[in-house]
Amino acid sequence: MLIKTKAIVISSIKHQEKSLIVKCFTQSDGLKSYFVQSAYSGKNQSRGFGKKIAYFQPLTILEIEANHKNKGTLEHFKEIKLATAYQTINTDIVKSTIVIFLSEMLHHSIQEEEKNEDLFTFLETALIWLDTHEETSNFHLILLLEITKFLGFYPDVSEIDWNFFEMTEGVFSPLQGISCLSEHETFLFKKLINLKFDFNQKVFAGIERQILLKILLDYYSIHLDGFKKPKSLDVLKEVFA
Length: 241
Prior knowledge:
By secondary structure, the protein is α+β, with helices and mostly antiparallel strands. It has six helices and seven strands, in the order E-E-E-E-E-H-H-H-E-E-H-H-H.
């Protein structure tokens, strides 16, 4: 079936010497993996494939035309172009580090191969926001928390006034059980829950961001089977140190 859709690049893995296997989160069909032949050459430029490797950087937003056979095998692009040409993400070291980290997080988090247009729209909007704003220190924290809404384990905030957050059930508690955050960690987590992308980025100190990042990674680990912490985590910590 010939499909035209937007797609966000989640990962790309080199195959043999010149080809790529690219995983995309598509607006039309959710997760899809594609085989890109001769990705490191300049062939097929007439179909928008010149210097193909440039299209498959982490979290690039594409417009694609592809043959989807839906047989569990690798699909193939027919045409490809940028849907959004980033202005700053690829040149700003902080933003590019955030994007590499988030692409790994999404690679390990989005596991269902089915359409989720709301999640796609949220990610597209968030990435464009990142590209067009300078103050982005809390972006990755807010994004990771917001994504849990689409993955099905966003915290239950009905009792948010209680002092402890229980990680396994995702609820706030008046008592500190074995799987609860400390009172200080819970305080920080509540501040994050109330944060939006365009709020004051100085609301957290560097060490508080590190605490929140650990909380979020632990929370993902508890609620997603087979979740792996990203290899780029240490680089992200250095950037925000």
